[in-house]
């Protein structure tokens, strides 16, 4: 009886805790955000640094809440992950992005960020595929960006998943490369098409010979792996010129374009 009593009191206290745990304002609001269409996509072009030509667009989520204001994706994606809401947000954003992609010239690709929850969930990945079928967009116009932190969370599984996605025709970008701690110990185990150099390396590239050295080494790595390379966070002409000198072509950053809504980008060609 004593054991029982103790057992039930533990169950009680857990439930009790769940009930009285106050959801933060953000959690409450986030639960409504998709239905209320408060989450929008901004696009940032990925360009050829040599001539400024737009090659593709990275979609970046923006949450505008009437009272809380604009909440950064870094903040709300983490909350959504905790609440088990990421799948809903991912599918909602992806469908929006694919509709937008249909309006752009065929040579333009979409680069879409996946959260760790999306990557480990085969059902979600299948649903992303169905959205492409629905809008008749070929898989090779879509690149999935997966951060090295996500990859590291389950290397074995992620390398299988990225291989499968590549077999379906999707492109894979290894995002935020160099921001983690053990990049070189896993990179040879992963299948990907593009490596995105984290913007922390670009920040100091003019003053710091070591940053230049790291970028140069990563570019050499890319060429020996036969993968493309994109540099993020290019903010000035000086940085751009230096990166071109180092042999980098694909770039992204405020120097070229800030993220902006779909309507901002117009193409004359079909
Ligand atoms: P990320 O994928 O590394 O995206 C690049 C971030 O750098 C974006 O921040 C972008 O606005 C910003 N950025 C671009 N150019 C420059 C520049 O020249 N200088 C500086 N200082 N920053 C620049 P944002 O939009 O706040 O997104 C932050 C992170 O949130 C993203 O980092 C990505 O990890 C995540 N995220 C954004 N949208 C989504 C989404 O739809 N799904 C998922 N799962 N994650 C997303
Ligand atoms: Ca990204
Ligand atoms: Ca990145
Ligand atoms: Ca990042």
Automatic annotation (TrEMBL):
Q: Where is the EAL domain?
A: 23-270
Keywords per UniProt? Membrane, Transmembrane, Transmembrane helix
**The protein's name:** EAL domain-containing protein
Per the UniProt record, the source organism is Paraglaciecola algarum
Please give the range of the full-length protein represented by this chain.
376 to 645 of 645
